[in-house]
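Researcher: We're teaching a course module on how sequence relates to structure. For the next exercise, students receive a sequence and then see the predicted structure as tokens, so they can try to spot secondary structure elements on their own. Here is the exercise chain.
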Amino acid sequence: MPYTLPPLPFDPAAFKDFVSANTFAFHHGKHLQAYIDSANKLVQGSHYEGKSLIDVVMTSSGPLFNQAAQAWNHEFYFNCLTPEPQEIPDKLQALLKANFDSVEGFKEKFAAAAVSNFGSGWTWLMQTGPNKLKLFSTSNAGNPMVDGFTPLLTIDVWEHAYYLDYQNRRADYVRDFLKHVNWQFVTDNLK
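Model: And here is the predicted structure for the students to work with:
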């Protein structure tokens, strides 16, 4: 079964102080669609045909990995967002405090990692073991799953994610992203 574009889990016009509906239209409707279309073409007729996107990400390399991982990463990123600010569930708050000294400490370290992630890529909060959280930045289509870690949260720092609204102000984009994290989704990813 071919991979399909999943709907956004929110109304893209609902964000008042983050990226615009226009950015979501390009980012989701064009960029993500292009990765999905390319992944579908690359798996066609191969031993990857019929495998889940996660299976392809975990076992492929080269162009197929790039397209499949970008599709998976983008879907995950969109699920990390919510228009309305949320409280962080107690379980996640406790883990953030234990691993980063405080929730604010986590946000500062996450923002610093995302802003300093050179070029195009992703910055992740991942679970590396029971009660162990770590920040990790990847380039291009990188994903911490391939190293055996559990992604909890990611921010897309490819310029297409923010350039229409923020131009070269990545730090402002990251700051506003942290106001719109779907903390329940992050918590649900914990193992």
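Model: If you want an answer key for the exercise: Strands lie at 121-129, 132-139, 150-156. Residues 20-79 form a domain with the Helix Hairpins fold (CATH 1.10.287.990).
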